[in-house]
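sorry to bug you again but im stuck and you know this stuff better than me. below you get a single protein, a line of residues and a line of whole numbers that encode the local backbone shape. mainly i need to know what kind of three dimensional shape the backbone takes. anything you notice is useful, everything is just below:

***
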Amino acid sequence: MTKQILNWGFLSTARINKALLEPLRTSKRNCLLAVASREKNRAKKYAREKNIQRAYGSYADLLADPDIDVIYNTLPNHIHAEWTVKAVEAGKHVLCEKPLALSLKEVDAISAAAQRHGRIVVEAFMYRTHAQTLLVRKMVKNGKLGKIRMVRSSFTFVMTNPDDYRWKPEMGGGSLWDIGCYPLSFARTVLAAEPLEVFGWQITGPTRIDDSFIAQIRFPDNVFAHFDCSIRIPFRVFMEIVGEKASLRIPRPFNPRAKEKLELIRKGEIETIIVKGTPPYLSEVEDMADAILTKKLPVISLADSRANVAAILALFESAKIGKPVSLPFATI
């Protein structure tokens, strides 16, 4: 009989875990079974507080548990790829927090392992599974806005914890890897196209990471995108898609609620569009269940994740040399 319930394990006790606690308990096809930490006492404390059945004092012990089907990888950016590959080699499917990896070589290693072991690996851009994102992409594809000319977006907040690993360049820190990946991913998704050329500027902070990043992107057919991201600027988030007939404002593009609204602006008139859907973290775990249990393709493919990483690397290169960089951008 085919297994119908997937047992999940948290690979770390990171704060982002809380986003999946309720979805995994709500879902009829997913169950949170275990959590791991580098310290057994920390894992036990976390498991007790969150009512998780099993606690492990090492990541390897969690991967060795034969009852675990899916790993949620929330480790720091620089070891996403390492532990995703280890999880796949242990026979586990993986939902890995963004960014999936920090180099194309790492993405390719994950893809090779997933293919070799027949496992599903998905990058955790939960907004991609939400009805709002699917509707926006459909509106663009169907010409609701006319020919698309521009995509503009921002994602900023002030990071106050001085011990956060995102301040450290060797751990994949900085605003572009952390939050700039969202507007980049969103633009690629709704346009259903890949960048031809990028130009980037960064403001480097005292720890040598990009405290702020500004990106210009040229897509096929003379469609241009612009976004800024920062971990030094107060919270701002929005997305706007500008077409020849109308423009579309998306107030909460990257963390939509079950019920959201879009603003369609045509000839100075604003039409509010209400979007109802499954909460994004729930739709994310259900997308994993669909891929594993029904063999449906996940919303985000590894090829998609590779293209996002390639564009990010090209933006960093552009900021370094002070010139536009063409895609595809080949780097390890």
User: Anything to note?
Assistant: The mean pLDDT is 96. The first strand starts at residue 6 and ends at 11. The chain has two domains: 6-124, 127-282+309-326. The first helix runs from residue 18 to 26.
